[in-house]
Amino acid sequence: MPEPAQSTDIVNRLFGAVDRRDLEAYLNCFTADAEYKAGNFPPVFGHAAIAEFGSRMIPLFTKVLHNVQNVWRSDNIVICELELTYHRKDGKIVTIPCLDVLRLEGDKVKSLRAYLDATPAFAS
Hints:
Layout: H1 4-19, H2 23-27, E1 30-38, E2 44-45, H3 47-57, E3 61-74, E4 77-88, E5 93-105, E6 108-115, H4 119-122
Parallel strand pairs: 1-6
Antiparallel strand pairs: 1-2, 3-4, 4-5, 5-6
């Protein structure tokens, strides 16, 4: 079984890239054919579709920060409990709970499913 440090390494690389708004570093965390599903949005597959999803979301906020609360790992599954803080362009700051399930293939994410209700981040 992989060391716990490896679990936090992928989590730190993945969410750190989002926090820095570095889409290329974010994509580098995924396998070429990865599945990505966030909240109620339909799943997307592969780097091009993940990049398109990210490029639609990035401009909506001045920044998004991930505050990881807990990380658990069993074989190739990593579960992260976290809070997402969205800094909206209107100046409002919204924090919502989230649970992510990552399926790894080697040191890359094969599947990411983020369970959250992002409605408050988009509400007027």
